[in-house]
Design brief:
The chain is α/β, with parallel strands linked by helices and 326 residues long. It has a domain at 3-110 and 290-319: 2-Layer Sandwich (Nucleotidyltransferase, domain 5). Helix content is 47%, strand content 18%. It is built from 13 helices and ten strands. The protein has helices at residues 36-39, 41-55, 77-90, 101-109, 150-167, 175-183, 188-196, 209-217, 221-244, 259-262, 266-279, 292-303, 308-319, and strands at residues 3-9, 14-20, 25-31, 66-71, 96-100, 115-120, 124-129, 135-137, 252-257, 283-287. The strands form two sheets. It has a five-stranded mixed β-sheet, sandwiched between helices. A five-stranded mixed β-sheet has the order 8-7-6-9-10, with helices on both faces. Helix 3 (77-90) links the parallel strand 4 (66-71) and strand 5. Helix 12 packs antiparallel against helix 13. The longest helix has 24 residues, at 221-244. The protein is globular. GO terms for molecular function: kinase activity.
């Protein structure tokens, strides 16, 4: 029986799963974040090799008949190809497909291989795939390519508004108190200076996302404006992607994923639902409960032309797995 190695490479962690052609999960592993854009392509692929080494002690390449890797940092087709070439060059498998992690999100949450997906985790991105295979995607290179949002972007906005509220350049907001509480500082400026000198690592900025949502829910107009803008972006990304491949005027599943969206904040979720109801009334919103590694593995089983029962077996494994299980 043939096997596939599925890879879900995220900014904070990388999940790897060895799956048999009949959908049986043979082994799983988790390791460091997948960061080809900052650490380089070889270092990113090293992460996969390190996980497989722990997951399959004593195993030698090739590790599977096919590798399906859906990863962060593969925002452009040329980046996908560079990662694919590195994996092939190491002999991990003779058959490799590399795609952006939004494709895995779509496949994990949708009932068919087509539809749309919007991810809002550390960053934000979207994709749409038509039944005929046409694809709409975005460069997702941050502000350089017109992006706004994601957990990091939200946290920056929260700190920006808090700083301006404290020094008088902006309106008063509960975000100032939230910043002081989260980082244990006497003032917002003290937190800003600590970030500037590296006394507070930038990774901690993400801790402001949950307080931002809470302050917005309590009625703070400044933080609510940030949440409203995020809902607009999530709606825009999905509807524009659907329009580009002709999915806007017919029923279409839109899978929402990433930590910010799967938290199901009532205010944010309600605003997103209202946005899609107005701009894409045929859209069916799905907040997936399955991890993206499932989408990568399903893509791999599709490549192997596995039967429907294999796909169901794979989904069933992860539906019954403990929370956090890779």
């Amino acid at each position: 029986m043939r096997t596939l190695l599925a890879v879900d490479g995220g900014n904070s962690k990388t999940d790897v799963c060895l799956v048999a052609e009949d959908g049986t999960v043979l082994a799983t592993g988790r390791g460091a974040g997948f960061e080809p854009q900052s650490a380089g392509v070889p270092a990113a692929i090293d992460v996969i090799g390190e996980i497989v080494g722990r997951m399959l002690p004593g195993a030698r390449a090739p590790y599977a008949d096919h590798i399906a890797a859906y990863v962060a940092g593969a925002d452009l087709p040329i980046e996908e190809e560079r990662l694919r070439a590195e994996i092939l060059g190491r002999g991990y498998s003779g058959s490799v497909v590399v795609g952006n992690d939004t494709f895995a999100l779509l496949r994990s949450g949708s009932s068919a291989p087509w539809g749309a997906a919007v991810v809002c985790g550390a960053g934000i991105n979207a994709v749409a795939v038509a039944p005929d295979g046409r694809v709409a995607r975005f460069p997702a290179l941050g502000r350089l390519s017109g992006d706004w949002g994601g957990g990091y972007g939200l946290a920056e906005e929260a700190l920006w508004h808090a700083a301006r509220a404290e020094d008088g350049r902006g309106p008063a907001t509960g975000l100032a108190a939230a910043v002081r509480e989260v980082f244990g500082t006497r003032t917002v400026e003290e937190a800003v200076v600590a970030f500037h000198f590296g006394e507070l690592p930038l990774a901690r900025l993400h801790e402001l996302v949950e307080p931002l949502l809470a302050v917005a829910a309590a009625g703070d107009p400044v933080s609510r404006s940030v949440v409203e803008r995020l809902a607009e972006e999530v709606t825009l990304l999905g509807t524009v992607a659907m329009r580009r491949v002709g999915l806007l005027d017919s029923p279409c599943e839109v899978v929402l994923g990433g930590g910010v969206l799967t938290a199901r904040d009532p205010l944010l979720s309600g605003l997103i639902e209202s946005g899609y109801a107005a701009a894409a009334p045929h859209a069916v919103l799905i907040v997936t409960e399955l991890p993206p590694i499932v989408g990568a593995a399903l893509h791999g089983l599709d490549h192997l032309q596995a039967p429907p029962e294999a796909l169901a077996r794979l989904r069933g494994h992860f539906q019954h797995a403990p929370a956090g299980h890779a």
